[in-house]
Fold:
Amino acid sequence: MKLMAALCAGIVCTLAFVVVGGQSATSPGGLPDWSGAWVMEGPTVFDGTTVQPRNGRAGDPGVREFPPYNDEWEALYRKHIELVKQGTFPDPISTCGTPHGFPRLMNVPDVYEFAVTPEKVFVVAENGPNILRIYTDGRQHPSKEDLWPTYNGASVGHWEGDTLVFTTISMKGFSGKDVIVDRTGLVLSDAGRVTTRLRKSDAMTMEAQMVVEDPKALKAPWKVTKRYRKQPQGTWAWDYACAENNRNPISPSGKTLTLGPDGKPIDKDKD
Amino acid sequence: MRSIWLVVLLAVAGSFLTAASLEAHHSSAMFDREKVVELKGTVKELQWSNPHIWIQVVTQENGTTREWSLEGGSPNTLSRQGWRATTFKAGDEVTVRFNPMKDGTAAGAFIGAKFADGKTIGRWD
Structure:
């Protein structure tokens, strides 16, 4: 958590550099103005266009999406869906110890901020908290030898007019416990590669068009669009110290427990 | 003695009378989203903390005291919906609605509350 706090402090300093100077539509250097606070539209279902039943909520029994999984990963997804029905599909973030990971980072509640600087763009998600850094200084992805799987992977991008186009690689992927895409049981492998076109589609809407490729898990590219609605001017983003009072730990069997005010599980069946 | 709590069985799953803002950081499999419990009690404490707020409500029925743990959204989201750390104060008399635990234990996912002066918070239509 100390590391997270230090990272947040660093971003605040960078934000101050960008924001000071006014409310113009573009920042110095012609970069777009994505200032303000934003909230994702819809529930935390990653692919709202394919979710069944319509308007289903991630984590509710029987709710699923239809990514172009190959047979092996479709079978894995179905297994997760059954675990959700049984209440034993654990969400890795319930431990309050790890980031959501990318692309789930683009699929969380609470406020988003999009901080544009000449060298990089930050996507700051209040929930988590989560931070995605997208380098736009002309660098390329590190070589394979210099990479290892991380929650958010490595992102480099460039500007096409007012659209930031970036590619993210080297995400951890699902290994049984680390990272999921949403709570329906959706997961990707560590071979995932996501190309995102991020832009302000109108004054009140940020749009992220993502194309997910995963040669281990998917038969075809998977296109998903997320949108974020601008919040009233002056909206605050706050701390999200997940470990502050986490009364929902995970049991060894994967069940989410509920702690009473004394800090002990109140569930009848604790495992 | 008039029962202090009332169970309302909803015919339609996913009714608007289900808890909102509880998809932040854990599964909600422990809650029965097709059932709404309404009870009257006294606020013991509001835990205004992340990742979720908790309202501790004490009820008395037939000489039995029971403390309920009602889980809400994050302070971040709720504060933008008009909540404050002082919205519930110890000693407040309230009627609360929530989706109860499936196993019948004294907890649930908060939906809404009505205070003694008639003011409401959350979903109360």
Remarks:
- Chain A touches chain B through 47 residues (CB under 8 Å).
- Chain A has two domains: 2-230, 243-271.
- Confidence is low (pLDDT under 50) at residues 1-24 of chain A.
- Residues 44 and 108 of chain A are 6 Å apart (CA to CA).
